[in-house]
Amino acid sequence: MKLFDFFRRKKNIPEGLWTKCPSCKELLYTPDLKDNFWVCPECGYHFRIDAKTRVDITLDPENRKPLFGEIKPTDPLMFEDLKPYTKRLEEAKNKSKVDEAILFYKGEIYKRLVVVGVMDFNFIGGSMGSVVGERFFRACRYCAQKELPLIVFTASGGARMQESILSLMQMAKTSLAVGFLREKGIPYITVLTDPTMGGVSASFAFLGDIIVAEPGARIGFAGARVIEQTIKQKLPKGFQTAEFLLEKGLIDNVIHRKDLKNFLKDMVDMLFYKAKEWNLDRLNATP
Asked: C4-type zinc finger positions in the chain (predicted)?
């Protein structure tokens, strides 16, 4: 083969066919990586995935219904930094292919009816603004009314600065909303993915009845460098990783992505569907 022919063939290779693992630096065939739930087969690194991919690998393909999509972001403060907030929202929507940092779906996990919320870090860093808070609030109220388990996947850098106090108050609003589920005995499960930081970690992310995380996920409030500069001390190795939090008792488990769907099925069975059957059997057995 002539050198010219080699480079001409190289130009014909489709873009995105290969993906480099940021952890082990292995060059991975993208279709195989996709089939492996976007987890590196060499080192187990969990790639960040978008909201719609998360929905596809979590919910059964049938009977999915998006919820609360009618609630759209606005710009009540008419905020502008280097560019208007409305422009940032438009750019984020075009980049991420979603209309906000959280999506909710009603669907099934192995035929168990649930509501799933998925955050997308590609939309302004998964930041929590008034729409994220309102959609979460309505999801909790909806699940309490319909008696459906709620599962939320978190991925966020924190509160959305462009919405100022309107963003900050969502921490209280989302925390309050979880109370709807507690009052009705409806299970609420959170899955912390990389990264889960700031106001999201300090509110609804850590209020689940069951709190699990993906391997290697970075979870905390302030960043490690900010903490080190504040306390003037070196932080321990692995600080703010899912494994570190599990060791310290802050989360219940670290679950590989390929096992998450089965794990969630078992949890909604144990906390809700089988529990209802057990309670009914116990009532029927009462003399």
From this structure: 21-43
Boundaries of every domain in the chain: 16-47, 49-285
Listed residue (72, 166, 42, 64) closest to 115, CA to CA: 64
49-285 belongs to CATH 1.10.760.10: no
Kindly give, in sequence order, each residue whose CB lies less than 8 Å from that of residue 127, ignoring residues fewer than 6 positions away: 101, 156, 157, 158, 159, 160, 161, 167
DSSP 29-97: EHHHHHHTTTB-TTT--B----HHHHHHHHS-SSS-EEESTT-----TT--BSSSBHHHHHHHHHHHHS
State pTM to two decimals: 0.91
Write the pLDDT tens digit of every residue in 151-183: 999 999 999 999 999 999 999 999 999 999 999
Q: Residues at the annotated binding site? A: 21, 24, 40, 43
What pLDDT, in 10s, does the model give residues 230-239? 999 999 999 9
Annotated binding site for Zn(2+): 21, 24, 40, 43
